[in-house]
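When time allows, look over one protein, given below as sequence and C-alpha cells. The question is which stretches look regular and which look disordered:
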Amino acid sequence: MTEDTLIPDVTKAPSPRERARIALSTARRRTLALADCLSDAELIAQHSPLMSPLVWDLAHIANQEDIWLVRRAGSRPAVRSDLDPLYDAFRHPRADRPALPLLDPAGTRRYLADVRDQALDVLAAIPPGDGFLFGMVAQHEQQHGETMLATHQLRAGPPVLDAPAPPPAPADARGLPREVLVPGGPFTMGTDSDPWALDNERPAHTVDVPAFWMDTVPVTNAAYQEFIADGGYDDPRWWHPDGWLHRKRAELVAPRFWLRDGGTGWLRRRFGHVEEVPPDEPVLHVCWYEADAYARWAGRRLPTEAEWEKAARHDPATGRSLRHPWGDDPPGPEHANLGRHHLRPAPAGSFPAGASPLGIRQLLGDVWEWTSGDFTGYPGFTAHPYREYSEVFFGPSYKVLRGGSFATDPVACRGTFRNWDHPIRRQIFAGFRTCRTAAEDAR
C-alpha cells in the first residue's frame, strides 16, 4: 500500500483506521518537506550541538515506526533490527550522534519508505481498535518534525523555508482586557477518554483550583522589551537563583536570535531572514528562567499546570472540561496557528473563534507556554506503552510547557497535551503568559 491511497472520505467522520492513515501520511509529508529542501551535506551536518544531524532524526523516525507498528502492532519481522542501537535516543546524546556510523541520506530515505510500506500493510490487515500505537507513532513523527524545524532555525545559511504570514489581528485585539478572572473551584484535569492521549495526560482527576487572573493573550515582544529596557536582565531580584547563575554564565541579554539593530531597537533572525522584531507578536525563544524573571518583574507569576489547563478547558456554564478551548471540534485555521502553515506566531489577540469559554485567546498554537511546575505523573499514573516515553523524565530537571506552537501539528496538540524541557532551553518555540492569584485583590 502507498501513501497515494490515503484519500479520506470527507463526508463522514474518519474511522480509527482512516484517522491513523491520515495522521501518518500528514506527518510524513511534513517530515520530507524539511529534508528535501536541503543538500545531503546539510542533512549530515550537525547545525548545533543541541540538535541531532537531520539525517539521524529521519532514521530515528523510521526506527520507532519499525519497532512499534511493524513489530509490535503487526507482529512482523523487523525491517532493520540491526539499527535499533544506533537510533536509540537514550543510548547516544545529541552531541555525539555525528560520530556514529549513520545511514547516508539515500539509505535513510529507503529505510523510511520500506518501514512505511510495511506499517500501512499492518494497518490495512488488522483491526486497529482505538489505534493508539498508530496515533503514538504519528505524534512522535510530528514532534520530531518540530525538532527538525528548530534545527532549521539554528542552521546558518540562506533561507530555504517560506510560508505566508499569519492574518492580521482582529479589530478588537487592542481593546481586549489585560487579564481574565478564572473562577475558583474543582475541574477535571487530564483525560481517560481521548484514545490518542499519551500516558502523561492520564488519568483524569479532579483538581480544586483557587480563583486566579490569567493574561488574555501571551506576553508580547513589546511587553518583553520593556523588561529588557528596565534592566531586567541585570537585576538579580527577578531571577530564580539558578536562573541568575545561568543568565550570567550564558550571558543572556535578550531572547535567543535577537540582535541589536545598531540603535535602541531589536532585530531577529527567523529561518535565515533578519527582520525587525514585531512588537505585537508573542515573545518567542525564551527559557523558563527568562519567563519566570519577567513574571516577577511584572508583579505576577507563571501559571501552574492546573491553572493553565483549567483556563484552557473548563467551561463554567456546563462544568465540563473541553478537549480544546473552543470545544471538542478539531482545530481549524480559524481556531489556532498550528501545523506550520505560518512560520511565526500570529499577532496577540488573534483567533477569537479559538478563545476559551472565558475569553482567553491563543491558548493553543503560536507559542508553547512555560508553566511553573515540574514534570511529574498524575495521581494513578501508569506508564504506557513503555517507561521511557514519560516516566524517566519525571522530576525537577524538567519544566512543563503547554499549548503547542505554530510548528506543532494538531494531532499533537490538545488541552491535555504536556510538553517538557530543561528550564535553560531556548531553541524551542516557547513563550509564556502570566497570572496572579485572585485573593491578592483583597490585600
Q: What stands out?
A: Residues 132-154 form the longest helix (23 residues). The domain at 173-220+282-442 is CATH 3.90.1580.10 (paralog of FGE (formylglycine-generating enzyme)). The radius of gyration is 22 Å. The CA atoms of residues 383 and 392 lie 10 Å apart.
